[in-house]
Amino acid sequence: MENDYDVLVAGCGPGGSSAASYLARAGKRVLVLEKEVFPRFHIGESLLPCNQAIFRELGVLPAIQAAGFPRKLAARFCLGNGYPSTRYAFRDGRFSSEPEVFSVERALFDHILLKHARTLGADVREGWSVTKSTADEGGVRVEAVDPEGKHHVFRAAFLIDATGRTNLTGNQEQVRVIHPRHKKIAIFFHFTGVALDAGEAAGDTIIVRLENKWFWIIPVSATKTSVGLVIDKEEFAAQGGQPEAVFQRWHQSSAVMRERLRQAAAAGPVRTTTDFSYVNRRLVSLRTMRVGDAAGFMDPIFSAGVYLAMWSGKLAAEVVLGARGPADELAGPMRKFEKRVNAGMRFYWKMVENYYTTPFMELFLQPRRHASLPDAIIAMLAGQLEGGWNLRWRVRYFFFLVKLQAHRALVPRLSFAAVARRERGEAAHP
Ligand SMILES: Cc1cc2nc3c(=O)[nH]c(=O)nc-3n(C[C@H](O)[C@H](O)[C@H](O)COP(=O)(O)OP(=O)(O)OC[C@H]3O[C@@H](n4cnc5c(N)ncnc54)[C@H](O)[C@@H]3O)c2cc1C
Predict the structure, then answer these.
(1) Angle, in degrees to the nearest 10, between helices 358-365 and 389-407
(2) CB atoms inside a 10 Å sphere around CB 219
(3) Do 135 and 169 meet the contact criterion of CB atoms below 8 Å apart?
(4) Residues 210-254: tens digit of each pLDDT
(5) How remote is the CA of residue 45 from the centroid of ligand 1, in Å?
(6) What domains lie within the chain, and their CATH numbers?
(7) How far is CA 303 from the centre of its chain?
(8) Ligand 1 center to residue 368 CA distance, Å?
């Protein structure tokens, strides 16, 4: 049994480093065990503006600014043929306060966050894998393997599971549930020479929607742009299961993608990832909290993963910092933590489920300009999870209109078939 800690954090992605930084800054003894040695590649590069408040609170914003990441001022959504295309600029939103954020190369970004947690006093160990945890009323007992393969046991008052999609404690407790329908695969590259928009729009995240699949285009450095395709696993397999070939096929099918990648050259290997849509039935257990992807994840369309990870890391830290009395008094704050994180994740689940329907896309790409609905959409895209009533009723109203749009055309219909024909140059858009 090794040194006792107030908190053991498993994993040092954005969720783990956020929790560790808040706790170490408050004077807690924090041990962070991270399986990899940083910098290491990670997907998840487009951030949400609400992340800025956390960067500021933790004092890490200057280091992130100094890294020279592209500024993300807006998100642009379009169909494969470029019609219609809607740009949501964050500074235009009445219900969100942050006008911009960055898109990042995660290897560098996660390393900045890890080093910051260390600077604030967390004992961060790289190359250490957590293998098992058990808990009792008094605390948690965590087993881990060091870089030389030696086994260790640590004891701490709390465990924050930030192991991402490894989902260490969720799997251990068998509470992980894979989404029954969203079985997707993402195929992605870093490219140089991608055609971006001019001026301040050069840092925009661009989403290109085909009928039942979509591309992202995310500038991550002065020269590199991340480009990925998200497609049904079944379709991918039916098309031969070769990532590069499937990517090429669909990128060639879209006028927008052909134009954007005309001069592009791959700046790294093709990568794939799959089975990323799941939830955990419980986010807390005895003295244990799951944050970020260890709590759950959905389709990456709305770029919410890093923000949800850092926000839930912060909320978990608040539970620990508020814990003064005996263990049974923890139940209330932990339940509240679970409720808030679940509500945040459910919100994005709803967005994702809707995103794959045509009525949602029709209203999303052609927003009605009344009741400040475009501002409400901007707030959703900015990560404004807990906005006040002014935002909440508009979000509900927006989803009500989506339901209505399914039966009555409030805005012009989009026909993906027509789009596909147009992409092949066969017909004009109606
Ligand atoms: C295709 C795709 C595209 C995405 N695009 C975006 C995007 O544009 N924007 C966005 O915000 N999000 C995006 N995401 C989501 C984003 O990647 C995650 O939500 C985010 O990284 C979650 O952060 P985290 O800290 O919870 O987990 P991670 O970042 O995964 O960090 C977990 C850490 O835990 C470590 N670890 C794992 N197991 C152990 C162990 N047993 N012991 C010790 N350490 C361990 C890992 O090495 C890792 O460093 C995307 C996801 C996918 C799949």
Answers:
(1) 120
(2) 25
(3) no
(4) 988 999 999 999 999 999 999 999 999 999 999 999 999 999 999
(5) 10
(6) 4-69+104-178+277-346 (3.50.50.60), 184-274 (3.30.9.100)
(7) 5
(8) 35
